[in-house]
Design goal:
There is one protein chain. Helices cover about 40% and strands about 15% of the residues. The protein has helices at about 25-40, 70-85, 105-115, 135-145, 155-165, 190-195, 220-230, 255-265, 280-290, 305-315, 325-330, 345-355, 360-370, 375-400; strands spanning about 10-15, 45-50, 65-70, 90-95, 120, 150-155, 175, 205-210, 235-240, 270-275, 295, 320, 335-340. Helix 2 packs parallel to helix 3 (about 105-115) and helix 6 crosses helix 9 (about 280-290). The longest helix has 23 residues, at about 375-400.
Length: about 400
């Protein structure tokens, strides 16, 4: 059935949700907004997850219930609410850190008690053998699989681990790429106009954006800019984002300050700018469209998803990234470039090559943009709606 014609589908999303500042919250909101764009007849409600000591949040009216992250009784009450809600499908945005108990194990209690069909989107998975707490985390995923009708994963490697290593039936696992905003492709001359709008004209703009933690590797990028500015004085590194307001580890608390100090010590104030605040999506989109390079110098070796990467490709960015799993899947076939982990000179080499070859940048941008048409938010929403509708129909049949 075409998703535009679905009329009798009620989905309950369980996730962190804005105004909470969280990548999963943004993902859930963007998914729901895309669902409404492709089908206004689908009924959507949200259960928002509140962490311990959370501020009183003014949630939008779509949020009908709140789950208290570390209160096991709240999981039981939430399951009861879901069972009496009239919902057809529970759609869980899963990340180990947003649920309660050790590594979020409380979610298994809820899933075991919910009587409607369940779809779980796994935003992270310890795909590498060397990942910390891997055995325990995979056991949690096994329990989730036992109490769910479908697991969605954004990467082929994650799907392979679920099927081959955890022996989860193949028909229970679906590959659904992280969504990105469907932006128009911007030609080079129009990028220059956008640069002028933001007072960046005549600069070669390199962009990094997102919540700032030590794992983003921004300090290595700063070292690279320090080297490159000698031969390319118009190079400009723009860092959008602020330290994570909730989940920052102790060592991350002073990371942003250390980055600012490094810029000052290296006398890079004219070549590097921080915008440490949350910007509207329209502004972030403008920066994606105007930048010459989107730089992801991440230090995480096992990342199976990235909203920054998805948005960058959907905007037609030329992306330079460390080879974490999600990047390796999406940036091959001349859709991007790789740098080594924790190696500023590797960044220098790739950026120098690209600065000297603007035609290569344009070719890469087009390759990335055309590939990403398959996972804009609207295309992702269509896949999710189809999965939920098919599960609803199958669940009804198996109930008789």
């Amino acid at each position: 059935m075409e998703v535009e014609k679905i009329k009798d589908l009620k989905i309950i999303f369980l996730s962190s949700f804005p105004p909470r500042f969280c990548g999963i919250a943004d993902f859930c909101q963007n998914t729901i907004e895309a669902i409404y764009k492709v089908n206004r007849d689908v009924d959507v409600k949200v259960i928002a997850i509140d962490e311990p000591n959370a501020p009183e949040r003014n949630y939008p009216s779509i949020v009908k219930w709140k789950l208290l992250q570390e209160d096991l009784e709240s999981y039981q009450k939430t399951a009861l609410w879901i069972n009496h809600s009239g919902g057809d499908v529970l759609f869980v945005e899963h990340e180990y850190g947003i649920f309660g108990g050790f590594d979020g194990i409380f979610i298994c209690e809820l899933l075991s008690k919910v009587k409607i069909p369940k779809v779980v989107f796994l935003h992270s998975l310890p795909v590498l053998k060397t990942a910390k707490k891997r055995k325990f985390r995979l056991e949690i995923v096994k329990k989730i699989a036992q109490n769910s009708q479908k697991l969605l994963v954004p990467s082929s490697l994650a799907k392979k681990v679920l099927i081959q290593e955890l022996k989860i039936p193949q028909n229970k696992v679906e590959l659904v790429r992280h969504g990105g905003f469907a932006l128009p492709f911007v030609e080079k001359k129009d990028r220059e106009k956008l640069k002028k709008k933001y007072h960046l004209d005549k600069k070669f703009v390199i962009l990094t954006y997102g919540l700032i933690t030590q794992s983003k590797g921004i300090d290595f990028a700063i070292e690279a800019i320090s080297t490159l500015k000698k031969d390319f004085p118009n190079i400009f590194y723009l860092v959008l984002g602020r330290p994570h307001p909730i989940h920052a580890q102790e060592k991350d608390k002073y990371y942003f300050a250390s980055l600012q100090k490094k810029v000052k010590n290296l006398k890079l104030q004219k070549n590097i700018k921080f915008i440490p605040k949350f910007l509207p999506q329209e502004v972030i989109s403008d920066y994606l469209l105007l930048c010459d390079i989107l730089l992801l110098p991440y230090l995480t070796h096992a990342q199976i998803s990235s909203g920054v990467l998805a948005n960058g490709m959907c905007a037609g960015c030329c992306i330079v990234s460390t080879p974490f799993p999600y990047a390796k899947e999406l940036l091959t076939s001349q859709r991007g470039f790789f740098i080594e982990f924790k190696n500023y000179f590797s960044i220098v080499q790739i950026l120098e090559k690209l600065i000297k070859n603007p035609e290569l940048i344009e070719k890469t941008r087009r390759n990335a943009y055309h590939f990403a048409r398959s996972f804009t938010w609207e295309e992702m929403a269509k896949k999710c709606l189809k999965i939920c509708y098919e599960i609803k129909k199958g669940f009804r049949k198996s109930s008789f």
